[in-house]
Specification:
single chain; alpha+beta; BirA Bifunctional Protein, domain 2; five-stranded mixed sheet; McrB_DNA-bd; NOV_C
């Protein structure tokens, strides 16, 4: 069992932070072996352990810090994905903004919290708390197992404002005893948290994580370049295509099973959107009385009982035209790693749902 800190390494780190075991050291000492191990060696160890996993080394930078000049109350190790974290003036990924995975060691070196956290440099405690709560809503119904949502914001890291900001900016975490952090277990949770991080950013949309409006000025808590923003949107679109295909195939197979006792109808069921786009529906099936059934499928990778869905003008028109022969089927858990499930099947959604549709795009025309 490989530990992140051996007994001697932990004792060295403690002596580095607390001179004579009592007084908190004030200044950083880069020549101290404990400093070198924490800041330099630990990122190397963790990067080597991530080789061959889903996390791309090309896009991942691991940084560790005990402070700059003044020794910090909270030592940390951050796993920075260049897609979700901006670069500073030195062209290095920075923890000041963005959203990332971070291992936070409390002031007493007793507990470490591996968490999804938000860059806290330009946000106040209330802003960070609101941001974290919004992000928790995205993943709260996911299978978190022994990860904990930071619902109460009550774990302790340190006494000053900075540690309090770290707590308020935390979305979800796994707590470890600092003396007993197993490296392989830590890596397992890093990978698990990164999947949740992808959901937070890609499922909700980059725009909601990028800009913060205040009365004074526009502040960015996730600064993303135009090129990076375009790449993330492309990634999100690819993810949505995968989610959509999984959801549609699931509904298609469900329809085949539903009509198994009516083989003449079953053999006519078509997964139309697999080969043709723009019909206004994804699957053409049949009711048991022989009437045609036109199914539009909306899916999410989240384990949710609700979904925000988007309709094209064509889908809206066809739904209104087909009436009670049109069904909107909503699928959650549409992921290769999960078992999809149907949240709801709404017959004639134009009658029951479309009066609550929200216009999000407008078309104009100008001619000189």
């Amino acid at each position: 069992m490989e530990l992140l800190f051996s007994k001697n390494e932990f004792n060295d780190l403690y002596r580095y932070k607390y001179e004579e075991g009592v007084k908190h050291r004030e200044r950083v000492d880069k020549s101290n072996p404990a400093h070198q191990y924490f800041v330099n060696r630990i990122p190397e160890i963790l990067l080597s352990k991530l080789k061959g996993t889903d996390l791309s080394k090309e896009k991942l930078d691991i940084q560790a810090s005990v402070g700059e000049g003044r020794l910090s109350e909270v030592f940390w190790v951050a796993f920075l994905n260049e897609d979700y974290v901006p670069k500073n003036k030195s062209n290095k990924l920075s923890t000041r903004n963005g959203i990332y995975i971070v291992l936070l060691l409390d002031i007493n070196l007793e507990y470490a919290y591996l968490s999804i956290g938000n860059g806290s440099e330009f946000l106040g405690l209330k802003e960070l708390k609101e941001l974290s709560r919004n992000q928790m809503k995205i993943i709260e119904k996911e299978p978190l197992e022994d990860l904990e949502l930071n619902s109460n914001f009550n774990f302790f890291l340190g006494k000053s404002t900075r540690p309090k900001k770290y707590v308020k900016g935390t979305v979800v975490y796994k707590r470890f005893n600092v003396r007993n952090i197993e490296v392989n277990k830590l890596i397992k949770y890093v990978i698990k948290l990164h999947k949740l991080l992808d959901l937070i950013v890609l499922e909700k949309g980059i725009e909601e994580l990028e800009v913060k409006e205040t009365n004074e000025k526009k502040r960015r808590y996730t600064t993303i370049s135009v090129d990076k923003h375009a790449a993330l949107l492309e990634k999100r679109n690819k993810l949505q295509k995968i989610v959509g295909d999984i959801a549609e195939e699931f509904v298609y197979q469900q329809e085949l099973r539903r009509l198994a006792h009516l083989p003449a109808l079953q053999e006519k069921v078509e997964w139309c959107s697999k080969t043709t786009d723009g019909l206004g529906y994804d699957i053409k099936s049949y009711f048991e009385d022989g009437r045609e059934k036109f199914i539009e499928v909306k899916g999410t990778a989240l384990n949710a009982n609700e979904i925000t869905y988007y309709l094209s003008l064509r889908e809206k028109i066809v739904a209104a035209d087909k009436g009670d022969q049109y069904a909107l089927v909503v699928v959650s858990n549409a992921s290769e790693e999960k078992e999809p499930r149907i949240i709801a099947e709404v017959i004639n959604p134009a009658d029951s749902l479309f009066n609550e549709l929200e216009a999000i795009q407008f078309r104009g025309h100008y001619e000189s």
